[in-house]
Amino acid sequence: MTRVIPALLMVLALQIQAAQPPEACGDMEAAHALDFWLGNWEVLDREGDLLGHNRIRSVVGGCAIVEEWTGAHGFEGRSLFYFHSWLGQWRQIWITAAPQRPGSVKEKRLVETFSDGGVRFRGEIMISPEHYVQDRTTLRPLADGRVHQLIEWSNDDGKTWNRSFEGWYVASEP
């Protein structure tokens, strides 16, 4: 009987430990790299014309961010950014139904952080089964509460970059 009690206590302790929720990603400093981008946004071009609306929200205990883009002309895109806790790194997958490339997918990973809190993601886009280009997105928080986004592509392994999108995010109502 005296052996049974310690064994039961051990089983009970393991069950209690297993019932505790895992540590949320929000408890890890690196998981907050995109917090400045959370919210509802109108996205404007350099001249102040509307490019679209973007809703950026944290989900799954801070382990993921969902981006819901609707362009001014109606096309949509969605991103899932996820924090890979084993690597301590953010990754992104983006898919769009844009007319020029419906079903187009981008996969990127966080490759750089900046002293102003900005981040840069980089990956490849398949243009055709035989041709890929490099793709990078830079997000920078601005002092006035806006966010600047620059998306660029390179077909020479990053020696030169071409702008494919540039927008300024201005907070909007939900």
Summarize the structure.
With 174 residues, this protein is mainly β.
Describe this structure in words.
The chain has 174 residues and is mostly beta strands. The protein has one domain: Lipocalin, CATH 2.40.128.20. Helix content is 9%, strand content 52%. It contains 1 helix and 10 strands. It has one helix spanning 4-19; strands at 39-44, 50-59, 64-71, 76-84, 89-96, 104-113, 119-128, 131-141, 147-154, 162-171. It has a 10-stranded antiparallel β-barrel.
Can you give keywords for this protein?
1 helix; mainly beta; 174 residues; Lipocalin; single chain
Q: How would a textbook summarize the main sheet?
A: 10 strands, antiparallel, barrel
Query: Could you tell me how far the N terminus lies from the C terminus, measured between alpha carbons in angstroms?
Result: 63 Å
Q: What is the CATH architecture annotation?
A: Beta Barrel
Return the average pLDDT rounded to an integer: 85
Please mark out the parts with pLDDT under 50 across 5 or more consecutive residues, or reply none. 11-22
CATH topology: Lipocalin
- Please list the strands of the largest sheet in the order they lie side by side: 1-2-3-4-5-6-7-8-9-10
* Count of helical stretches: 1
Detail the topology: elements first, then pairings.
Layout: H1 4-19, E1 39-44, E2 50-59, E3 64-71, E4 76-84, E5 89-96, E6 104-113, E7 119-128, E8 131-141, E9 147-154, E10 162-171
Antiparallel strand pairs: 1-2, 1-10, 2-3, 3-4, 4-5, 5-6, 6-7, 7-8, 8-9, 9-10
